[in-house]
Automatic annotation (TrEMBL):
CDD domains cross-referenced by the UniProt entry: DNA_BRE_C
The keyword rRNA processing belongs to this UniProt entry's keyword annotation: no
Keywords linked to the UniProt accession: DNA recombination
Descriptive protein name: Phage integrase family protein
InterPro entries (UniProt xref): DNA_brk_join_enz, Integrase-like_cat_sf, Integrase_catalytic
Organism listed in the record: Bythopirellula goksoeyrii
GO BP annotation list: DNA integration; DNA recombination
GO-annotated molecular function: DNA binding
Amino acid sequence: MPSNQRKPRVPTLKYTKSRNIGWHVSFRDPVTGTPRKHRFGMVSLQEAEKAYHEWVAAHLCGQTPGVKPKRRKKLDLHSITAKPSAEGVTAEILEGSLLHITSGLLRYEESRVRGSGEGRRQGSITRAVYDQRKVYAQEILEFLNIRHGQGAVGRMMLDHLGLDDVEAYNRAIFEAGYSSSQVTKRLQFMKAIIDRAGRPEHGGQVLGWNWSSRDVLHGKPAKKRKLPTLKQLQLVLEECGPRETAMVWTAIGCGFGQRDLAAIRVGQFDKKGYDLRRGKTGVERYGETPPLVWKVMQDYIKQTKRAKGELLFRTVKGMAIVHEHADSVTQWWSKLLKRQGKACKGMGGFYTLRHLGATEFGARPGCSISEVKRWLGHSASSDMADVYMKPISPENREVIEWIGNALRTGNADFPVKGKT
């Protein structure tokens, strides 16, 4: 039967006790095309059938509310004011023009990208970092084209770039609501383009004004870090199976983020300690294994029967839990918090557990900044380590003391899903 004559599939009414879903239907989102569930809840069959028929009628008429996919925040280039003299130019690209310089810079940045699975080497970057810098380049060039006329960057030399252009770009990204970090990264890339113009092949161009003299607008400050409460943490742990329990306590007890967890292999941990290199920074990562972390790891290994040298944490399909642009830990964590509803509202991402563990580690008697740096896997800078070298605030004392006791004794007194 031709596709345009197919009858729309009618989702069937189903029931499950899993996660207290109850009566529900499974269907594809009309906007994104992704699988979704519409829940009627743990109600009687009569109530579920009534609600189901009403829902099906609306669904077949195209009235199912869709969920728009989240998109990255973009700079509103339509609101940029062009200079009065801005006119369109021919699509000619001159040697030494801003477009020529930026293209060369991107080629250099791409040459630094390390391959998938390749170890970190000095001066290398990940594909994700390169992709982001490419976006910065496209944004800057498009901004200048609007300011000076379509195709202007193909013939603009560095001395055509005015202080007012840089300040206007700074104001545009500031008004777009970017964070302070995102504003800084964009301006740093613009400065990299300016610095590259001084190379011999570009004619040794220099600015006719002082970069440091510009008026600077910073983005939104980082939000104050909020740690989960004891009740929230216990609610999450009650929903975890052996694998998830091991991930949560390794994140708290050893300060491992998602990519750190994805790199652990069986045999790198023993009862006394662990020693492995953190992929993000290349800094040696070692320390004592908290009794509770060792206990939940052993429970998980016994269940999955992992061999020595294998990845400790893998997806159902046998892949690393974090690979390329896929992060199954973040996906699982987001769904878990969503199921908890208001009880875990504002709890933050999985990386919050690393901050939670660092707060507990930094509060231990006799703990030094160098020990916190080693625990975090950071290099020379002590700025981040110093954040955790402070007395515990009253609102966090309960959860921090509970975590410390659980890690030391190896007993958290919570039921583990899937275990008897």
